[in-house]
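In the laboratory, one determines a bound structure by crystallizing the protein with its ligand and collecting diffraction data. In a computational setting the workflow is compressed into a single prediction: the sequence and the ligand go in, and a structural description comes out. We illustrate the idea with AHG.
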Amino acid sequence: MTDPLTEKKFDKKLITIERHIQEQQKLYPSATGKFTEMLQDMALSAKLIARETTRAGLANILGAVDASNPTGDRQQKLDVFADEVIFRMNDHTGRVCAMVSEEHEELIDIPPHYDTGNYVLIYDPLDGSSNIDVNVSIGTIFSIHRKFTRGERGTLEDVLQEGRRLLAAGYVIYGSSTMMVYTTGRGVFGFTLDPAIGEFILSHPNIRIPDTPKYYSVNQGNEKFWTAGVRRYVKWLQGIEGEGHEPLGHRYIGSMVSDFHRNLLKGGVFLYPGTMQDPKKPYGKIRLLYEAQALAFIAEQAGGYASDGIGDILNVRPHSLHQRTPIFVGNRDLVERAEKYIREYDKDWVQAFLPYRNAEMQHKPASSK
Ligand code: AHG
Ligand code: MN
Ligand code: MN
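The predicted complex, in structure-token form:
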């Protein structure tokens, strides 16, 4: 007698992330394989970080160390660990010409005794780190550019490229299970870690954001500081302002990766708007390089859209490593609606934000909290 459970199990193809990345590589005839190996290294980094996040309490590595990251956040030990893992995984491979991390003020050079390659790695080692010690999902965000300057080592110019030019982007969620989601510009694929065998298995092929959105995600506690357009927009999401559609549900975790991931699978919008609370800092909180560009690329690949309230985040030319950007990301129609409200009601804010958005490239971080 056949066991229906077993039959069902073997009915489906088991695709590991390594196999998937290799098969994707075949779609790019000029690929050398180095890029493929880099993505595989990210998956391995994710497993190492997941091992630590899942036993964070046991290993007694909770709590803040006595250091701040360049943007002024309290840096926690797992941030440092995750940052180190990703750096060490990539410093000696000969594939990478430079790295930048949310946890480092400047460009991270490849040590002089190692070879360099054609790729720039950009990463937020742990996103949502304020959630570490309360056992709420956190994540890693990464993206990869191709080096275009001529020298052997990567330069700031190689890092500060438009998101539109990204070769790949992805994120990992350390949640009820560990997942890695990535794109190389041909769709978005999600993999779930089977801890028993230590492999990421394809669980979400070709993710598309659903047409009918379910959720909006914003730190509603900041409402006091919002501009008129953002206020009206959120009222519209709630079905109060405008034509009065069914309200969207409100969900906010405070880990962008997790909020983004839920909305990608269920439909909706995540926003972290700019405000006029301090007109000299009209740009909100999210970092353009480490967070916004990667998620914007993934959103677009899944049929969604990301805007800074003015236009497409993927078309913004970064001017500094720790540049911040307002973000509205999710279903295209929801995001375009935000742009419309901002155009109509937030002219002062647009005036204040545009010079920052269009500033020339600089070497020092432009902002701190
Ligand atoms: P990080 O932990 O890498 O500094 O990022 C935290 C970010 C983002 O993940 C999240 O959406 C946002 O901060 C939450 O900010 P608020 O606590 O202001 O809502
Ligand atoms: Mn982050
Ligand atoms: Mn972080």
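Residues 364-369 have pLDDT under 50 and may be disordered. Keep in mind that any predicted model is a hypothesis to be tested, not a measurement.
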